User: Which sequence fits this backbone?
């Protein structure tokens, strides 16, 4: 089975004819043999593609060009009419000289359209004398007016076209628009897009790498700072620990001697405070658990009540020798603490 | 039958090659430069985290040691006074600030944790008050002195003669 190729004519008014190629991703171009281009916005083609999924798209101007090449006639006004639109073109040396698209055809009659076009065409510098008009049309687009030739004074060829037949022509297929697809491999992707995306990805990677390098550098500096700080803290810690260890070693002895000295001071002070004004000490010997005192008291009572009695409350055992002398009562006394086992 | 247009022209192939080139360059750059830097970055980050944890630990230790040291600070002057040598001459000199020093005798020395030197002191003072000032200063100035029994005071003319026993603790 041979697939029947279907095609449709492009009815976009945005078709432009240029003599050089523009690398514009928003447009689709079709190159023609004699070095001219037909360009159409991509979005117009997308709209047609959405309505006709698989049909190939051909510009009426490309079709008229083919007919011009086929018949090899100069001085002809080529006209293509379908639906509600008319496409006019004049060619010279293989290139379109002047073209026009008219829509809403029902508002005009064919004669006015042709005369209007001819007036505009003859205003062009490159215009030439039109000797014949060739009209191609789909069935039902216009009615053939046999008197039109007489009124325009030009021979007119009315050519009814069969679109399906045209599509089978291999010469036509090379002027089909190639619609850029958005998916599948890289077909349709344009150079700028790839360049921009590629450079952007590389730039992002480079930026990311720079960020990593910067962060790594910052972290390295922070680590150095921390190590320095740790060294300082460790040195300080060692210093403290060393002092603490040395102090801990001597602390029991320090406490012992401080306690002993304070105890002795208190004990001595208390004992001296007990001695009344009427008693005069000449000797005082303090042992750990005993006290030996010698001295002179004003009278017997001064010693016994003023000193001996008080000392007897501190030292449980005591003995004294009291003798009357010239200056008073001389005493020798010894007191001892009771041993508690 | 469905027919599909699949036009591959030179321009598309060029773009495809360009894209492959970018993918290749990106791969090389990512694999040999970015990944290496990323490894180094992660390594440094982990090291930093470790150092930060260590820092906290060391700081806490130093703080604990400082707190403990603060409570021991009152004993610190003893480290200095215990490092000094208290020979008879220097001891006489020190005692002469408080008393008239008649005699200083070293009785014995013993060494355990510290060197303990036991002295007999024969002193003369104006009044027992001088002795109390001396006792006060022992603690105030952190002298490593310990008064031992017996303490003997005797009237000599208008002064007081004292025989005291003093143990001195030093590091050597």
Assistant:
């Amino acid at each position: 089975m041979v697939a029947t190729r279907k095609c449709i004519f492009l009815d976009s008014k945005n078709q432009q004819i240029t003599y050089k190629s523009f690398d514009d991703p928003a447009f689709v171009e079709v190159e023609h043999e004699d070095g001219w281009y037909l360009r159409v916005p991509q979005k117009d083609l997308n709209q047609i593609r959405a309505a006709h999924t698989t049909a190939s798209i051909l510009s009426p101007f490309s079709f008229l060009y083919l007919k011009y090449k086929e018949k090899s006639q100069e001085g002809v006004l080529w006209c293509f009419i379908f639906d509600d639109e008319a496409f006019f073109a004049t060619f010279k040396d293989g290139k379109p000289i002047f073209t026009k698209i008219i829509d809403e055809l029902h508002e005009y009659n064919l004669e006015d359209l042709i005369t209007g076009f001819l007036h505009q065409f003859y205003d062009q510098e490159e215009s030439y004398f039109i000797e014949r008009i060739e009209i191609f049309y789909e069935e039902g687009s216009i009615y053939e007016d046999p008197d039109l030739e007489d009124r325009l004074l030009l021979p007119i060829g009315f050519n009814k076209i069969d679109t399906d037949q045209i599509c089978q022509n291999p010469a036509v297929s090379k002027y089909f628009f190639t619609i850029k697809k958005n998916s599948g491999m890289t077909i349709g992707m344009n150079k700028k897009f790839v360049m921009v995306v590629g450079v952007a990805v590389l730039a992002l990677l480079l930026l990311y790498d720079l960020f990593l390098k910067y962060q790594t550098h910052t972290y390295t500096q922070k680590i150095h700072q921390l190590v320095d700080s740790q060294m300082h803290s460790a040195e300080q810690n060692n210093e403290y620990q060393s002092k603490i260890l040395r102090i801990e070693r001597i602390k029991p002895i320090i406490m012992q001697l401080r306690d002993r000295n304070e105890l002795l001071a208190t004990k001595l002070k208390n004992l001296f405070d007990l001695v009344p004004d009427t008693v005069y000490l000449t000797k005082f010997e303090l042992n750990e658990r005993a006290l030996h005192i010698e001295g002179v008291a004003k009278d017997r009572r001064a010693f016994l009540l003023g000193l001996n009695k008080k000392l007897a409350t501190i030292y449980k055992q005591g003995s004294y020798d009291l003798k009357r002398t010239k200056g008073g009562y001389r005493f020798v006394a010894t007191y001892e603490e009771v041993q508690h086992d | 039958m469905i027919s599909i247009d699949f036009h591959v022209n030179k321009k598309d192939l060029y773009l495809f090659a360009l894209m492959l080139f970018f993918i290749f360059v990106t791969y090389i750059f990512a694999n040999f430069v970015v990944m290496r830097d990323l490894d180094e970055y992660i390594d440094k980050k982990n090291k930093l985290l470790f150092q930060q944890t260590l820092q906290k630990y060391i700081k806490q230790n130093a703080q604990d040691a400082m707190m403990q040291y603060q409570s021991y600070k009152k004993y610190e002057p003893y480290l200095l006074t215990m490092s000094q040598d208290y020979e008879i001459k220097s001891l006489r000199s020190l005692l002469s600030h408080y008393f008239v020093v008649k005699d200083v005798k070293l009785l014995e020395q013993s060494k355990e944790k510290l060197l303990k030197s036991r002295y007999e002191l024969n002193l003369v003072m104006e009044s027992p008050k001088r002795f109390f000032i001396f006792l006060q200063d022992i603690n105030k100035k952190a002298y490593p002195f310990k008064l031992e029994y017996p303490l003997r005071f005797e009237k000599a003319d208008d002064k007081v003669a004292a025989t005291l026993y003093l143990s001195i603790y030093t590091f050597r």
Notes: The helical segments of chain B are 10-72, 76-81, 88-95, 128-140.
